[in-house]
Amino acid sequence: MEYAVKMKRIHDEILMKSIRTPQEDCLGPGQVHLTAQRSAYIDNFGNPEVFKVKTDENFQQTEQYIGVTIKRDDFKTIKKLDR
In this structure, are residues 80 and 55 in contact, taking their beta carbons and an 8 Å threshold? Predict the structure, then answer.
């Protein structure tokens, strides 16, 4: 079986690493979508504790693919960086 994914490359100049404010190491008001929907429910997804639950869940779900689509060392490195 062969899998293929066609992705569109995002230009470097619009990546967060390129548009953040260097002095504050964060995004400025011009880079944030001020018209995006907001609510307590949506804002909660940015809560570090909630975010950690989601990343931990992702690691549990992808662990079965170690040696299939991801190398063990790569998985461990990514997981370590998540802490």
Answer: no
